[in-house]
Amino acid sequence: QCFIFSITVNANLTSLPEKHLVLLRDGRTLIGYLRSIDQFANLVLHQTVERIHVGKKYGDIPRGIFVVRGENVVLLGEIDLEKESDTPLQQVSIEEILEEQRVEQQAKQESEKLKVQALKERGLSIPRADTLDEY
Amino acid sequence: MFRNQSLEDCPLDEDEDAFQTLGEEDEDINQFNDDTFGAGAIDDDWQEAHERLAELEDKPATARELEDGAVSDEMELLGHHEENLAERLSKLVIENELEDPAIMQAVQTQPPMQQSGGLNSSIWDGSAVLRRFRGPLLTQEMPSVSVLEYAMLQKPPQGQEDERDLSERALPRRSSSPIIGSPPVRAVPIGTPPKQATMPNFIQQILCPKPVHIRAPMQQRYPSPYGERMSPNQLCNVSAGRMSPSQFARVSGLVGSPLTSMNPKLLQGRVGQMMAPASGFRAFFGAPPPPAPPSSQQQHPPCPGSHLQNLRPHPQMFRPDTTHLHPQHRRLLHQRQQQNRNQHRSLNGSAGDRAGHRSSHQEQLRKDPYANLMLQREKDWVSKIQMMQLQSTDPYLDDFYYQNYFQKLEKVSAAEEMHGDGPKKERTKLITPQVAKLEHAYKPVQFEGSLGKLTVSSVNNPRKMIDAVVTSRSEDDETKEKQVRDKRRQTLVTIEKTYSLLLDVEDYERRYLLSLEGERPALMEERKQKICDMYDNLRGKTPGQERPSDDHFVQIMCIRKGKRMVARILPFLSTEQAADILMATARNLPFLIKKDAQDEVLLCLLRPFSLVLYHLPLGTVTSLLQQLANLPQSATVPAPANLHLTAVLQNKFGLSLLYLVLSRGEELQNSSAAMELMQDNQWTELMSMATRELLRIPEAALAKPVSTPSNLLSLFSRYVDQQKLNVLETKLQLVQGIR
């Protein structure tokens, strides 16, 4: 429904800008400096980086300035800069992470296909949830 | 229409005439135009006005450079223009108080304050549309929509804002009158936050002279959470008798804060609530909540009083809008504030006052030129909107899961504290501003001199699009299938109705606590009535004295939701009613078991059933056993293969229930006095029959019960000899060790 972003907004005042992490409905994770926000949760992110997570690895793709329409935002959170480096995740290069992601997607699709096949044999069918937010 | 007529009536060879008539019509078109569109379509007023405004556009951009931000005359002109428009509109409308908020925006009256500032100051104010309420309002005068405004002078922004082309956002205003009934075309869309910087020097001008509409009968228990933050102006308008004294004390402490009015005071005339972001976002709840909060608050009921303890009269340090937050949220925020203040302090070594802040401001800009892209005002504005969304008349209705979740959390933490006996954390409850629900009887707008009512459809008064009529089917048409379907539907409807009653009844406890003393008996009555209704619904109302058939009840029990509902209802029923339900269940158990095969929901009934059993006398238990086992009344009748009992025993629920009944019977037997001899005999007979049956049934067919009561062994030992007892033991796994 509505979210309290007072923390975030207040952070705009501090000397060091605080990074924010935004999760979008399609599953993308954006990290950047939140510059502007409005009542619909439309966001303006500065120096945005799209972070792709696969397993324990992640990769950052620099994206520049992002303007996100509010309805696509799932959640928005502030990143504690001190704790940011304190993560068990391992950063890899962009190519590597994209490759990993592709492999993961492929595996998912295969298992999905098998599932659908098995269901079909039993006479059941689960409709493809195109309109749902699935990732 | 004229045209149609000409085409239809004139045969083909009269086409020339038809064209001629069409030609004549063209001359009338201008006439029609005038009638339809009025003078606006022909006059070129709007063009001139546009020119004028376009010129003005350039002026504010330059005016900003001036040190004092002088008001340009043209701005005033425009302001007056809109004022005139508003006045004209308000005269037109009969109903002085337009209830439809969507339409209300079309009529704005400006307070007699100078509207200085840029083109966009009115937009900012427009976004804070007040809602006015009928009903017992404190102030007698009822102006039409009063938009609380303030004058914000523009301070030439520091270098960072030069790059922003502010003129882009301001479109010229239209001079033509808005279409009556719809909100006027806004120069800047309503959702646009303001863009000027705030100036702390104009505190005095900011305070709005207009009184705040407050609902007079504010409940004692829910004083406005913002009471502390009312400016002196608003204080005068508050019904003094209503506010608790502690709030006044706090307000007086806060009034003197220099930054109190730094931000625009956008006051909402919302009932019972004053959204006055009194100070900047900077910090809130400066000091940590006092370690012994309840001492001063004990006289207040915990719920509304607890929020006060979190608000220290720290001048710069409170954030009124965040009282909505759960204490955990607030704690987080507070921590943030501490951190930030520490950072401030380390930067400039000052105590974080305004002067110090300014110098650190420069540093901020150096480090991050894009910081503060959003003005404080804008942030406040958005935050205010979000807080508005949090308002609710009944949080338990609107935000049930949130409330329950945090209640559970609190209970858990309270329980932990009991054990651990650790430091007493704040036990504050979440307070959201309680806005009393007011009924708006919306009446459509009426205009002078018009015949009938104009169909002004807005969001609050939507037009009826479809004329749906409910037709009831006649009995004759129904086929057997339909009847069956309808019966099921009827049952479902009954379940739904009963469920609503159940939810209401479950809620009564909470309402009871919240209500006033005088209302409580009425509440109790209501509750009783609802319980009766529920029971009637369950059993099916029958005319006369005859015992109602089980059919209705069985139908309900066939449906999963019905079973769950019965399980929830049972605690509320009286003993007789509950026993009745139990009997009905026992009687029809095989059927229910069959129906439950897929759902397996019957087990949810075990708990409430067992609770009921503890209240039942032996007689009832005996008959219950009889029903359950479907054993004949007397032992003399040779018992045929007892399918009923078999089915019961083969089902988990059935067996468990049987055990419960037996165990209860045994308890009663042990404790009952000798005067219940008659019942004893019956019980004994039944027991012997039951044991006979149990012996007969092969072990493999037996279900696994949920729990085996411990006294069954002693129970059976009464009625059978040792050998059979052993058999029973192994069969039913009565001995503890075997399982």
Automatic annotation (TrEMBL), chain A:
A Pfam family: LSM
Keyword terms: Cytoplasm, mRNA processing, mRNA splicing, Phosphoprotein, Ribonucleoprotein, RNA-binding
Cellular component terms per the entry's GO annotation: Lsm1-7-Pat1 complex; nucleus; P-body; ribonucleoprotein complex
GO biological process: one example: neuron differentiation
PROSITE patterns reported for this sequence: SM (PS52002)
GO molecular function: mRNA binding
Membrane spanning stretches: none
Sm domain boundaries: 7-82
Keyword presence, tRNA-binding: no
Subcellular localization(s) per the UniProt record: Cytoplasm; Cytoplasm, P-body
Function: Probably involved with other LSm subunits in the general process of degradation of mRNAs. Plays a role in the degradation of histone mRNAs, the only eukaryotic mRNAs that are not polyadenylated. Probably also part of an LSm subunits-containing complex involved in the general process of mRNA degradation.
Subunit structure of this chain's protein: Interacts with SLBP; interaction with SLBP occurs when histone mRNA is being rapidly degraded during the S phase. LSm subunits form a heteromer with a donut shape.
Family the entry assigns: Belongs to the snRNP Sm proteins family.
Protein name: U6 snRNA-associated Sm-like protein LSm1
Organism annotation: Chelonoidis abingdonii
